[in-house]
Specification:
Helix content: over 70%
Structural class: mainly alpha
Strand content: under 5%
Number of helices: 11
Order of helices and strands: HHHHEEHHHHHHH
CATH architecture: Orthogonal Bundle
CATH topology: ABC transporter involved in vitamin B12 uptake, BtuC
Radius of gyration: 19 Å
CATH class: Mainly Alpha
Length: 292
């Protein structure tokens, strides 16, 4: 029983950290209606930014603070230089552009900085938190708390005046223009906010597994989270991340030994497949019905 509870708790915390990656998806989609397939590479880039700043002599926490500014600016520039030029184009072309940005960053980062993992030390003790017979990784615990705080902050943000404007832009660009909302600025802000989410994910995951191209693979579980929870739902990020994390921990915990490993990716793939088949707009996503 203790083994199951340990898988359950650590899986929930891992899922919450997946939520950090998925949050960037929702922030952009909820504000602009665009699916950002470059979010995984943005997390990788954020990890490299923190590592470079620490290597330059900054403390890790100052590096994270400065990284927040730099990644926000990166999001603004990505929208200004790339996405804005795609105004009026089919949505599939914009999605393909974000995929191209993902592939570009995934190659350029390791190409310039080397493929070997770069370590980020957050100063968290290695000794686990022990509750009864359950061992909890301290970094996982901190990451889960950070994810919860950012998700709640995002919920509150979309209740503010600016957040309401961003949601209006997502609903209808033309109507937003007609009432004086700067659509370009709103979309740029959403990309900047996704950059902030990337810094949080890059710092936490970079401290766990090091910073290299594999950080961009967080794109896969993040996609599972947003498909399950709903592309336009911040609450869906929380619920979806917990489900993906728990199932991706408990099931492989019992089946990996029998199957020889690798069942976590299979579980994640099945979550995506069954969600699309049964409830394609997710648990909390808005159901849009269109005539085709």
């Amino acid at each position: 029983m203790s083994y199951f509870l340990e898988l359950l708790v650590n899986g929930a915390l891992t899922g919450a950290m997946y939520g950090l990656a998925a949050l960037g998806f929702v922030l952009i989609y909820k504000s602009s209606g665009v699916v950002n397939l470059a979010q995984g590479a943005m997390i990788m880039l954020a990890g490299y930014v923190i590592w470079l700043l620490v290597s330059a002599g900054l403390s890790v926490w100052l590096a994270i603070a400065l990284g927040l500014v730099l990644m926000f600016l990166f999001g603004l520039l990505a929208e200004r230089l790339l996405l804005r030029k795609m105004v009026g184009q089919p949505i599939i072309m914009i999605v393909m552009l974000t995929l191209g940005l993902e592939i570009f960053l995934r190659g350029v980062g390791p190409g310039f900085l080397g493929a070997s993992p770069k370590q980020i030390d957050l100063g968290v003790p290695l000794a686990p938190v022990i509750i009864g017979d359950i061992f909890i990784n301290r970094v996982y615990l901190i990451g889960g708390i950070v994810a919860l705080v950012l998700i709640v902050a995002s919920l509150l943000f979309f209740r503010t005046r600016l957040g309401t404007k961003l949601r209006a832009v997502s609903d209808d660009h033309v109507s937003s223009w007609s009432v004086g909302i700067s659509v370009e600025r709103a979309i740029g802000i959403s990309w900047g906010l996704a950059g902030l989410s990337a810094i949080a994910a890059g710092a936490i995951w970079g401290s766990i597994q090091g910073v290299d191209w594999t950080l961009s693979e967080l794109l896969f579980p993040a996609i599972a989270v947003v498909i399950l929870g709903g592309l336009d739902s911040v609450v869906g990020v929380l619920v979806g991340s917990l489900i993906v994390g728990v199932l991706g921990s408990v099931i492989p915990g019992y089946l990996d030994e029998l199957a020889g490993g690798g069942t976590r990716d299979v579980v994640t793939s099945l979550i995506i497949l069954f969600t699309i088949m049964i409830r394609p707009y997710g648990i909390f996503g808005r159901e849009d019905i269109e005539r085709v």
